[in-house]
Amino acid sequence: MLKKKTKIVLAYSGGLDTSIILKWLQENYKAEVIAYTADIGQEINKRKIIQNAKRLGVKNIIIEDLQNIFVKDYVFPMIRGHALYEGTYLLGTSIARPLIAKRQIAIAKKFKAFAVSHGSTGKGNDQVRFELGYYYFGPKIKVIAPWRIWKLKSRSDLIKYAKKNKITIPRDKKGAPPFSVDDNLYHTSTEGKILEDPKKQAPEYIFQRTVSPEKAPNKPSYITIGFRKGDPVSVNDKKLSPSKLLQKLNIVAGKNGIGRVDLVENRFIGIKSRGVYETPGGTLLMIAHRAIESVTLDKKTMHEKDEIMPKYAELIYNGFWFSKARFKLQKIVDLKRNQVNGSIKLKLYKGNVTILSRQSKSKAYSVKKVSFEENKSFKKSKVERFISGAARKLRT
39, 155, 180, 290: which one is catalytic? Predict the structure, then answer.
């Protein structure tokens, strides 16, 4: 290992795993560890993070508020692309890693650190997402991935190491070591323990930001989301910053039991995993955005977006947010976003979302053309020629 004292920037949450990693880095690299926490709207206790880091001898602790940047520059572009991985997953964890990696490298350059480190396991996707971001912004900076090189091979090993080094071990609501939880302003994911067996039902107590539909209010909630140039800008006619807007939607959707998904996904590295995801506000945004595009964009543009979506979502899932391929698809996604203006009214009731109205000044939707009343704006005589042309394609 290294003989001279150097610096490593660790993506630090203040929890069990990253506290163990912090101690391990100090022991094995004889390095000064800079604890970096990106505040992207997760449940965060800044005092606890600082206390835990200081207890481990860290002098430089950086907590950076990135909530608005995260929502505006990462979540909103993804919403515009209607990104769903394998038709279900709204990519809440996937979209957070590129921003954290970008800022972590910036911190490393600022303090002239020789390496960065993360707490992702050797079986997960996040190691790829973090490291692709590291390589994009700091190809000469060393990457240390403890889970791939240390001798601690299981959760039990981590707990033994923590006890040996007097690192606090948190408990879940049942008094046992916790599930693996990741959260940010966009979503919460829960994995591990009983969830590893797909035959077993997810226990209700693991849900953190949504009530069960059965326990949701017996009266519906109504909400109107306003859009400008493809992005949400207001809720119930009140303009809000990107982070405040998502916070508002999370609350109203969560209390109505909206945004739960229990899925088994195909990880980039080739194994399957089961997780429970809660994306309440994001679910509303996805539904509302598709609805506003339905009355503002032409058929060709909408269908092209639908065709590229699976690839677009897969690139994000696999960690290629900063790739040329994702940038290219984003241009297609945003080609006519300036036309996407208006508002969508939604009804929320016991886990269900119903579109009540779509309002826009766009001329893409014509009431005259679709009306069953006779009018001159649509010539029915053209329909026969249209069908004849379509029939000829059957034989080609």
Answer: 180
